[in-house]
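Section 5.1 Outputs to date
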Amino acid sequence: MKILFAASEAVPFIASGGLADVIGALPKALQAKKAECRVIIPLYAGIKPEWREKMRYVTNFPVQLGWRSLYCGIFEAVVDGVKYYFVDNEYYFKRDGVYGFYDDAERYAFFSKAVLETIKHIDFKPDIVHCHDWQTALVPVYYQLYYKYVAGYERIKTVFTIHNIQYQGKYGYETMSEVMDIPPSAKSLLDYDGCANMMKGAIEVSDKVTTVSPTYAKEILNPWYAHGLDYLLRSKQYKLCGILNGIDNDQYNPQTDPLIYQNYTADDLPGKEANKKRLCEDMHLNYEDGTPLLGMVTRLVGHKGLDLVKYVFEDILNRGIKIVLLGSGEYFYESFFREMAYRHPGQVAVTIGFIPDLARKIYASSDLFLMPSKSEPCGLAQMISLRYGTIPIVRETGGLKDSIQDCGSLHGNGFTFQSYDAQDMLWAITRAKDLFYDKPNWGNLVRYAMAYDCSWNRSAESYMGLYRELCNA
């Protein structure tokens, strides 16, 4: 079975969030299941020279997008046995940054058309084209409109995965014919709620629509979570399902990770404590053996539940818990956490920005990891924290609910709360703090968390079942 993944980013080449981690790990896991996978992403200026040096030029050809005939070059590279293709067009992709440009609709319409044109020019005819998020939402639309009955494209199935339904690729109607090359006769495919909605088009025409967790697949049928697409999704439930993401256990491995202070295993928990001591020194926190350290690595935006944290921040500190936070986002939250670090030196450390090396050190060094999200399609941070023996405290939503079970159950690997309520969150933190001081039971929980399987193995098998169903294999 041959699967072509189309996405706007992928580890290790370019990353702005969890999508890149998925595209970097899932194809490799599928190949272990005997699928043949390849990946296609744009050739951004931000891809580092050491990766560009590994690329090989393949070919170039024109891509017709409405009245424009556009240059498209194709490069390739192989990483961990997976072949990656890179779509080159310097006008669209030789820029500082990945997203947020005035012409993003045109950039990703070009990329989507280029994905399908590339199939003519490579030695790989996919059975499945698996598209991810709004940046590739036009791939199944273009396939339906222009390629489905063209020689060489027969019987290709399309899968579209929603990683975050908040970002849908919504633009004015005027962009349909001039920018996206959607003929007036097909306007209804994208027409939704007074605009041209790329994600809506993909949901309409894809053979299967997936989300990144089973709970999120149910939640987005509710107006509270769906950002306006609930009516459409309820009408397409027959092709909607959720498959929980995983993490790359080789990349996130406390026994071998070169980014943490000291490697350790589940049988060497003093090694984890050594990481905590070093992080406290580096972040100017007062290190006290036996005092819990709570970590957060997050975007500082409202739907991450930061208003709950703000409301009971002093109460958390009054329970003898130290806090280390890494993140960036809305000025309101950046200012609040900076102020807390200023007012509580030695007890609160805040770094504004995103520093991958520091993030890994926080995962390895903290005792607790807080994710009180209002919504969370999947979340990878809670899985990474488990891998490093750092116990998650999460709200039961989306992938957080699917991956973390409360310690009150037989299979508990963390602490959870249901209501979007600051006091409920504080009670979960308090329960975690109380168990932390019960050292034998806490050690058992840490070892259980580190042994918990968050790998792509089970998820890859679920995707294989989905692909087999589509291909009648």
